[in-house]
Amino acid sequence: MSSLHDYFNPSGSGYAIHRTALRRERLPECCKENLAARGISIKHLGDSGEEVYLPLVKCGICGRVYAICGRKYMPVDNPLKYEITDQQE
Q1: pLDDT tens per residue, range 66-80
Q2: Is there a contact between 37 and 20 (Cβ–Cβ < 8 Å)?
Q3: Which of 48, 30, 41, 50 is nearest to 74 (CA)?
Q4: pLDDT tens for residues 27-39?
Q5: CA-wise closest residue to 65 among 84, 38, 39
Q6: Entry pTM
Q7: CB 42 within 8 A of CB 54
Q8: For 85, which of 29, 37, 45, 79 is 20 to 30 Å away at the CA?
């Protein structure tokens, strides 16, 4: 099992690191008013290559999940693709 962990280790393979751009996405109408914090964050590479933690929010109506950074959003189709941590301040 440790070899599987080593394969998915972002410092070893780079497999778990995603460079999805944060953008000012037009959110669906139901998501604009119904986003709730999930209490967890995902690790993401910032613009200058540093690791940042983005809190996850979920729409209470449609169930879509987003990572937020200020006023920018990134849709997260599967949070398990990222390294998940407790909420970082």
Answers
A1: 988 878 888 888 888
A2: no
A3: 41
A4: 788 888 888 988 9
A5: 38
A6: 0.67
A7: yes
A8: 29
